[in-house]
Amino acid sequence: MASTNILNPNPPEFERFLYAYVGEDRRGSAVTVLSALARLNLDPWAEAAELAALGREGAATRFGLLLARVRDVPALGQDHGPVGRDLTRLLPEGAARPGSTGAAAKIGFPISSGAFWAILAAFLVLAQIMFGGSSGMGE
């Protein structure tokens, strides 16, 4: 049985990349790849998996373009291409896309959260019917 980390269900192979330092924002806060992607309203782990699946050149190009959209980190200015190229070297080789049968897809729960809640609701309704009794019938 594969162990899942409920407290951190995200694939650990992307942590080196996602926690890498990108630069400092205008307020003096450190910006990591994770926070830069979050500032762009992207899911950092999904984006890291997509980048890893593109290969080195494709990932460097795409990530450089994403970094160009992060406007509040002055150091990225004209250097977004080289920074993106350097940081994509931290991505694991041959990582799978989300939803595939690769290593990244094997981490997590075997059913979706929607299916889980539907099964739980059905169970609670059945429990109510079985143990709740019938109000006012047969009295």
Automatic annotation (TrEMBL):
<keyword id="KW-0472">Membrane</keyword>
<feature type="transmembrane region" description="Helical">
    <location>
        <begin position="107"/>
        <end position="131"/>
    </location>
</feature>
<keyword id="KW-1133">Transmembrane helix</keyword>
<protein>
    <submittedName>
        <fullName>Uncharacterized protein</fullName>
    </submittedName>
</protein>
<keyword id="KW-0812">Transmembrane</keyword>
